[in-house]
Amino acid sequence: MENTEETRITGRVARVVSIRDLIINRGRQHGVVEDQVFKVLDGDPYKVEDPETGQLLGEIRRVKVLVKVKEVSDLFCIARTYRTRRINTGGRGATFSLEKMFQPPKYEYLVETLERHPRQREVDPDKALIEVGDPVESLLSDENDDDIASIAVWE
Q1: Which residue of 28, 65, 80, 113 has the fewest CB atoms within a 10 Å radius of its CB?
Q2: Is residue 38 a contact partner of residue 66, using CB atoms and an 8 Å limit?
Q3: Domain of life here (predicted)?
Q4: Helix H segments across the chain?
Q5: Phi and psi dihedrals of 146, rounded to 5?
Q6: Minimal CA–CA distance to 104: which of 118, 91, 94?
Q7: Where are the extended beta strands (E) located within 18-76?
Q8: Containing domain of residue 114, as a range?
Q9: How many domains does the chain have?
């Protein structure tokens, strides 16, 4: 009988290359393929305690960002942020500015980044959302990336 169960690939961030690109310490030899999606997780899980008893109920990890593999070598891969969000940067509700209130809406697409404050092109380690050593795990085929919220900044 053939085993068709999908296995999740886990690894770590090996290097942050830019505000959108990072290197993961898993590659072709580990089963990574181009266009595969990985979740970058908080390094330390949050402990969930029962407020009444103080009993540890479990742990959860927050998703920092989703990345899609763009290049694969034998031992590592390069992945990039890929999700976009459409936002109104113009008038009619975009701000509380009286000046913009009477302007038409202006919609822009922002791309998820690896920084908390994406104003610089190079990643400042003090502002980086992603750090070397952060855990990563691949999405399974039945997981929908639209259902996964992240804490990334959109630029």
Answers
A1: 28
A2: yes
A3: Bacteria
A4: 98-101
A5: -70, -20
A6: 91
A7: 21-24, 37-41, 46-49, 56-60, 63-72
A8: 10-49+58-147
A9: 1
Residue 19 belongs to some domain of the structure: yes
Q: Is the distance from CB of 128 to CB of 116 less than 8 angstroms? A: yes
Phi-psi region of 70 (alpha: psi -120 to 50; beta: other; left: phi over 0): alpha
Distances (CA, A) of 128 to 99, 119, 138: 34, 12, 21
At 5, list the tokens. Answer: 């169960």
| Residue 98 belongs to some domain of the structure | yes
Distance CA 150, CA 113 (A): 11
The one-letter amino acid code at 126 reads D
With left for phi above 0 and alpha for psi between -120 and 50, is residue 58 left, alpha or beta? left
111 and 20 Cβ atoms separated by less than 8 Å = yes
Give every residue of the chain whose pLDDT is below 70, as ranges.
1-5, 91-101, 115-128, 149-155
Q: Report how far residue 87's alpha carbon sits from residue 96's, in angstroms, rounded to the nearest whole number.
A: 15
